[in-house]
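Q: Two folds, back to back.
A: First:
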Amino acid sequence: MKRRKILSMSLAVLVLTSTLAGCGGTGGKTESVSADQQTLAENETQETAAKSDVTLTVAAAQDWIKDWDRKVAEEFTAETGIKIDFQLNPNDQYTNIVKAKLASGDGVDIFYANTGRGLLEYSPDKYAYDLSDQEWVSRYTDWGKECCTYDGRIVFLNTSSIDGYGFLYNMDLLEKAGKEIPKTFDELVALCDIYMDMGITPIFEPGADAWHGCVWVLQMGDYLNRKYPGMYEKLCTPEGKFADYPELLTFTEQLNQLVQAGYFGEEEEWLSYTWSDRSEKMASGKFGMMVTNIGAAEDLWRKYPEIGAEQWKMGLIPLAGNNTFSNNGGNLARIINKESKHIDEALAYFEFVARKENVQYLYDSSGSPNCAFADVELRENILWDSLMEASNNVTGPDFAASIPFYSADPIGKAYIEMFIGDKTPEEVIAQIDNDRATMFGVTQ
């Protein structure tokens, strides 16, 4: 049986004590709490007081924790006394840092990871605590349960959504260019050429954040898995290679073509841009489009409400024939480290975050298109709707959700090396395969 939650346990003691004490004096009779009951109450009061001094460490990458996450954490601390310490790590080092902390035996209490098979990087059999019997699990949507399940067990608390990457377009600039959202690579190139003639940098790319280079090819997953049934299953084995699918090389060659044509701008400039620059750069009107996910795109109208949400729509990344939308299968979610010394406190935190009113608040604040919890009241999302229109409602999970060892940092760095001329497209694909083969060897 799972450990009992702190708050529920304390509440039960208080109810029991007050009920028994309230009986004294009724009808002139005096009833006292038994010695055993009094000892139980004292012990559990001491236990609760001790636990209220606990600080839970939560590992996340640098830009994953938002103001609304902190607000919920602060409210949890106000209610329980248990503090939350968000330990933020550089985006391109997060995975390695967390794995090292877990392996050290002095790891964090809670950590974030991508749902689906991306979890395999973190040795889930050893570190992922089983949450299957938690009350809030019953409120998951079907896809929420699916994406949060590993080996038949629920191991994630997911308050996020199905999301994914596509091109975000400045519709005012697109209208001035006299074009529609591109559906093919040739149409994309034609639009970029028009933007160049207009003095607009066609594509904003945060080159200083190398991980972003991996999200382009991420969008080929669902398209190829439909074209080659069983591709994901094959790539879940050491024998599966990216090089087996010629479209991935075509995609990589076409992406390099966009860079070498100058559509990212001057190399010394775009290599200095960061992911945190995206809203400012796109709001400036000097860039025609960028590759982003929906949740991050909505940061634009939170920071620049005067522009208006209607100015932005999204389309597919139409390289190498891609015409479907690859989604992340459930995005990032929280995991309790099974080796944590504070399991009860972590469970109490998860229960607090999963309360209906808190999940609704997180959804409303984040701008996510949907939510893993079925009882959240959803609203219309223009960006999601535009992606579904572009893909004719054809969507499925991407590489990160479907295969192990699709590691953003090394893949992104390989693409950056290609962009600056240090690797050929063939060498990028070979690098991805070599890195994945190494990881299979380590975990076998």
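A: Second:
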Amino acid sequence: YQYHSLNYDTILFLVILYALGHNRLMEIKTGVKLSDFSNYKTGGESDYFIVVKSADDIRQALLFAKEKNLKFFILAGGTNVLFPDDGFRGLVIKIGIDDFKIDGTKITAGAGVLVSDLVKTSIDNELTGLDWAGGLPGTVGGGVRGNAGCFGGEMKDSVAEVTALTPEGILKKFSNPDCGFGYRHSYFKTDKLIITEIVLDLKKELPREKLIELVRDHINYRNERQPLDYPNCGSVFKNVPTQNAPEWVREKIKDVIKKDLFPVIPTAALVHEAGLNGYAIGGAKVSEKHPNFIINFNNAKSKDISDLISFVKKEIKSKFSVDLEIEVEIVK
């Protein structure tokens, strides 16, 4: 009787939690500095913040948000996120499911496992398929959600199965085709699903020494060509499919067009041609080393970075009639 005012979804959450016998109290923090959880090192405080270690924890966190009528944000590694300067008025749920196991050529990993740890584990077990991710920051859950890729490889190439939690608190499994993988995209970006676990199916193709060499080469490439000395969130914009650029633009920079899933114009080349290298707003600057990176070079505010993103986008549209698509997730 005391729950007569609760709606169906809330009652369903309560029933699930009761059935699971999950009575561990989670620590919900207040006033957490979000700058500590973003590679840009900017952002204010979150009203509420929690680290979840299981699907059951996520259910409890969602129930907490529902009961307090809070919006929530799911945080993976923070490598591609820009938080607002005035913080987040709601609950940030940090995915901390970081256990994994190996069975033959398959690795089953919690969504919070660092990609770097999986790369190391794959090398130690002479498993091929993640060498392209050498030096890639972030978690495997975030990588799968955005179908991270570089050096000719992508997450989708190794994903066998993904487990995700629906807004109703139900776990669902998705095969590789169910994930809707595309260029820096997956089905999990468009639906309110929270990835909890990933099964990667790798191969036995190369010896450990060769895998170490490949990974080292990729890490060295990043160190040489990316502005890693400053806080940044990697490539700000997706590369541009050649079909989305006017013919005169394709002709002007034909020498730098490269093949990804399809022919693309590197956004860094467009930014360079627009003369935006080194352009700054406040403490944020377009990197001279890699023009598709925006760096926090001098105690930037999130607004400096977002204003610079908007400026670059506007300039590229004006000069080349190309609409850039943002990779960085700007939290509202």
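Q: And?
A: The longest helix spans residues 302-320.
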